[in-house]
Amino acid sequence: MALETVELPRQQDAVRARARGLRVMVLGIRGLPDVDGGVETHAQQLYPRLAALGCEVEAIVRSRFVPKGRGAFGAVRLRRLPSPRRAGVEALVHSLLGVVYAGVIRPDILHIHAIGPAIVTPIARLLGLRVVVTHHGPDYERQKWGRFARWVLRVGERAGMRRAHARIAISASIVELVRAKHGVEPELIPNGVPAAEPRVDTQHVRRYGLVPKRYFLHVGRMVPEKRQLDLIRAYALVRDTGWKMALVGAIGSDDYSHEVERCAREAGVVLTGSLKGEALQQIYSHAGAFVLPSSHEGLPIVMLEALSYGLPVIASDIPANLEVGLDAASYFPVGDVSALAERLERLARTPPDDAASCKRRDWVAEKFNWDRIAQQTLAVYLRVRPR
Questions:
Q1: Spatial CA neighbour of 191 closest among 78, 305, 89, 96
Q2: CB-CB neighbours of 382 under 10 Å
Q3: Helix, strand, coil proportions of the chain in percent (round to 5)?
Q4: What is the largest CA-CA distance in the chain?
Q5: pLDDT for residue 14
Q6: Is the C or the N end of the chain the one with fewer CB within 10 Å?
Q7: Crossing angle, helix 147-163 and helix 172-182, to 10 degrees?
Q8: E-state strands within 114-190
């Protein structure tokens, strides 16, 4: 759900006084609001809160992701800049245009998100800008990138981590990576999760032939590192439980998406396409469990969202997923279809536990709180701002 306004407690008046008038420019996101992607979800929650704390925030976005004429998202100003529709160079060209624009406007802080766009950090420094870079994960490990794109991402990581005035990592595993590879100490500020908005209505659930509390749910882009094919194969082994499997995410025109579509059809898996707003909230509200079999994550926002609805979670045992801190029984070895099937079957045969659901909701709301994350980010800005 789009976050247009944010109310923060009165005791933060002193924080607002320090932040008032601080001009922050954001680079590295495709668009706002409701644009698919972990970085975009992060930005959608973070920047309205920073604006509420007193910052003047302007986000540089790609023109094809934001309708012409939309100049703001709540209190966050949007600056549309063009970019070519070509994988591997789109982000690079947009980042170059964005840093030139920042050099003209001269904000107090340029906050760059992700290691690809961070390749322009040295240019920003030459232009005299104060730069903060957030490392959302080693994207060069994603299977979709070719050799040139991987090189750009590695160079971007090095430039962003070594040349920024301050750097932020969204998980402890990324902190360790940056410390080992680049000899610098990033600030650990995790992703967060807003309070869930559970829905009683079920029309969107039943539209896909799903029965409340009797379906597994996966939400994510259809890309190889999300390993939807593992999930489909595991589900095919446990269909006799009477549960269904629902995959939420846009189906692209690439070979992997086509393979997911074919295998899902054969296994009786429900493909909903991309869902937003009320439809997505209903699908989360009435799921029986959430599954994340990924081989690569930064800190998985979709897992936090599922927990905010109180859902049991089954996840691969990669460092980013382990860092969330679920019990050992919630994890399975990444890529092990048999182990995943065993977890699915066990969970499908376990009666619902309302008390455990409430406990999960409370726990994730306390541990991954966006208001606290906004204040931590602001503290980094105030250390970096020009004197």
A1: 305
A2: 14
A3: 45, 15, 35
A4: 66
A5: 61
A6: C
A7: 90
A8: 131-135, 166-169, 187-188
Average pLDDT over residues 335-362: 95
Residues comprising the chain, all counted: 387
Strand partners, 24: 57, 109
Question: From CA 101, how far away is CA 120, in angstroms rounded?
Answer: 12
112-126 pLDDT, tens per residue?
A: 999 999 999 999 999
* d(C-alpha 165, C-alpha 207), whole Å: 50
What DSSP letter does each residue of 20-74 carry, written as one string? TT-EEEEES---SSS-SSHHHHHHHHHHHHHHHTT-EEEEEEEGGGS-TT--EET
- List the one residue out of 192, 170, 190 whose CA is nearest residue 48: 192
Taking alpha carbons only, the member of 204, 192, 191 closest to residue 287 is 204
The CA-based angle 152-157-160, given to 5 degrees, is 115
Give residue 307's Cα distance to chain centre: 15
* Structure confidence at residue 9 (pLDDT): 52
In whole angstroms, give the CA distance from residue 70 to residue 290. 34
Q: In Å, how far are 76, 108, 198, 293 from 100, measured between CA atoms?
A: 20, 15, 43, 40
CA distance 76 to 74: 6
Q: How far apart are CA 222 and CA 257, in angstroms?
A: 6
